[in-house]
Each structure stands twice: as structure tokens, then as C-alpha cells.
Specification:
CATH architecture of the largest domain: 3-Layer(aba) Sandwich
Largest sheet: 7 strands, mixed
CATH superfamily of the largest domain: Periplasmic binding protein-like II
CATH class of the largest domain: Alpha Beta
Radius of gyration: 24 Å
Number of domains: 3
Order of helices and strands: HHHHEEHEHEHEEEHEHEHEEH
Number of strands: 11
Low-confidence stretches: 1-10
Strand content: 15-25%
CATH topology of the largest domain: D-Maltodextrin-Binding Protein, domain 2
């Protein structure tokens, strides 16, 4: 009877209770979860306790400085995320049924694309889609895909290929790689660089976690190039400055080579000879997304 009564009480579940639990799972702290949900800490704590009472199972282990979810709590959070995402999709579908190219669209770009692509396309998107408001974020590839699948963003712009399970993918363009060398380097005197020209060079690369690092390593594998092991950059701009200081050479995507930040006089950018190594830039979004029309419209502007 207690089990049946417990199941019946599921009717009392509210989306906000699930939202509180998910925030607690993300932050592992009652205070920070309450801040994230714009409620007081006692309110959030009380609602989580009510949720546990409704389900008849302990979801959270309360510790002095840290919160741990029980095994049941972790399972509930997985399903709660799905429910919250579906509910958001329902609201979004209703809101944008009559005006699909209006409202907010949450777009995330990886750090090796965002600072260079946005100055080129943001004004064009604003002119072409004046009723669409872009909310822009920057994440590396792995967290971007995770947030996309969890419904925290609507569209991701990144380098392909990626794990596309459950996602819609559209290739936007191919971007050539260039070689960045100190202005006094021997390669600064050539018009176009062949992979064999890189043999024996020490190449500066990004740190682990950047997909561009793997792509650069693949290009370097075509010649006898070694990575400078005592330094890994956190950004392309750091790489640019290290090369300008004469500490090595690197590969830059063409957009970064034409950076709005400009190149110092001590840096030379040279294109590759054919066949030019490239990376593929694409858009990814959930197949279930209700913002497909807006996403496709944004993709068209970027492609153009």
C-alpha cells in the first residue's frame, strides 16, 4: 500500500522541484544551487526534501561542505534533465510556431572559432534576421556537446568531425591552415610552405582539450616535426605572441591568421602549398529541436 501511495504522489511532482535537484547535481552545493535557481537556500532545501518524500527514496547525502547524490538521486537527475528539456521544447514550440525567426537562440562556439568568425557574421545575421536575438557562449568541444544534448544551448559551431549521436549536423565551410613563423625565420622568405619544409622544426601547440591541437598534430605528422613539450598554449592569441617572440612556429587557421587583433611586425604568416591542409567547420543541433528554422537561417548566413 505504501508503494502504491508513493506512486500516486508522483502526480504532485512539479518541474521546479526537478529543476532544483538538477541544479544541486550540477553545483553539489545548496547555496550555489539556490543562487542558480533564484530562490533562498532554505526554500531549495525544503523542496528537495519534499521531493524525496514524494518519491519515498533518499536522493541527496547532506554533508557539511559538500552534497553527494545517492545512486537513486543520480538516476533521477538523468531523467529529470530529459523532462526539463522536453518541457522547454514544448514551450519553445508554442512560442515560435507563428514567428520561427524571432526570439532568443542560444549559440555556442569553440574558442578557436568564436573570436574570429563572430566579427564577420554577427552583423550579417543581425541584418538578415533582425527579430532573432543571439545569446552567445564559448565552450570547448566536449562541454559544448554536453550542454547541447542537455538542452542548455540550441546550436553549436565547431570543428568536424564530432560524435553526432542524436544530433543534426551541417557542414558550413572548410578553413585552410596557415603557418605562423617569426619574421626572421627561414620560412618567412618562402611564398608557400610545403609540409616537408617543416621538417626539424619545433612547433608550439594548444593544450589538451582543444580539437585544433589534434588537427594540427595530424598536419605535422606528414613531416618530421616535433612538438615543443615544455609549453602548451591556452589560446591561439597566446600562440601568436609566443611565435612573435621567436620561441617557435605554429599552425593557425586562416580566420585566426587574419585576426581582428592584428599581427605584430615580428610575425610572418605563410599559406601552405597545395594540397592545402584544412579543417571542416560545421553546425550541430538536436534533432528534436523546435528552433530548426532559425538554426537553418543562421547557417545560411554563415555559409554565405
Amino acid at each position: 500500500m505504501d508503494y502504491i501511495a508513493g506512486m500516486a504522489s508522483l502526480n504532485d511532482l512539479k518541474l521546479k522541484d526537478l529543476r532544483y535537484l538538477v541544479a544541486l547535481a550540477d553545483t553539489r552545493h545548496f547555496g550555489r544551487a539556490a543562487q542558480q535557481c533564484f530562490v533562498s537556500q532554505p526554500t531549495l532545501s525544503a523542496q528537495v526534501k519534499k521531493l524525496e518524500a514524494y518519491l519515498g527514496v533518499k536522493l541527496v547525502e547532506r554533508r557539511p561542505r559538500r552534497v553527494t547524490l545517492t545512486e537513486a538521486g543520480l538516476e533521477v537527475v538523468v531523467r529529470a534533465r530529459r523532462i526539463l528539456q522536453d518541457s522547454q521544447e514544448i514551450v519553445s514550440l508554442a512560442r515560435h510556431e507563428h514567428e520561427p525567426l524571432s526570439g532568443r537562440l542560444r549559440v555556442a562556439l569553440i574558442p578557436t572559432i568564436g573570436p574570429y568568425l563572430l566579427p564577420q557574421v554577427a552583423p550579417k545575421i543581425r541584418r538578415a534576421l533582425p527579430r532573432l536575438q543571439l545569446l552567445l557562449y564559448e565552450y570547448r568541444t566536449a562541454p559544448l556537446l554536453e550542454k547541447l544534448r542537455q538542452g542548455e544551448i540550441d546550436l553549436g559551431i565547431l570543428a568536424l568531425p564530432v560524435d553526432t549521436h542524436g544530433l543534426q549536423v551541417r557542414e558550413l565551410f572548410e578553413e585552410p591552415f596557415t603557418v605562423a613563423v617569426p619574421a626572421t625565420h627561414r620560412l618567412a622568405r618562402v611564398t608557400k610552405v610545403k609540409p616537408a619544409d617543416l621538417s626539424g622544426e619545433s612547433v608550439l601547440l594548444l593544450e589538451d582539450g582543444h580539437c585544433l591541437r589534434d588537427q594540427a598534430l595530424e598536419v605535422c605528422s606528414r613531416s618530421d616535426v616535433r612538438e615543443q613539450g615544455d609549453f602548451r598554449a591556452t589560446s591561439l592569441e597566446t600562440l601568436r605572441q609566443m611565435v612573435a617572440a621567436g620561441l617557435g612556429i605554429t599552425l593557425l587557421p586562416e580566420m585566426a591568421a587574419r585576426s581582428p587583433y592584428g599581427n605584430p611586425r615580428t610575425l610572418a604568416i605563410r599559406p601552405f602549398a597545395r594540397p592545402v591542409p584544412t579543417r571542416r567547420i560545421g553546425a550541430v543541433w538536436r534533432k528534436s529541436s523546435t528552433r530548426a528554422s532559425a538554426i537553418e537561417a543562421v547557417c545560411e548566413v554563415i555559409r554565405s
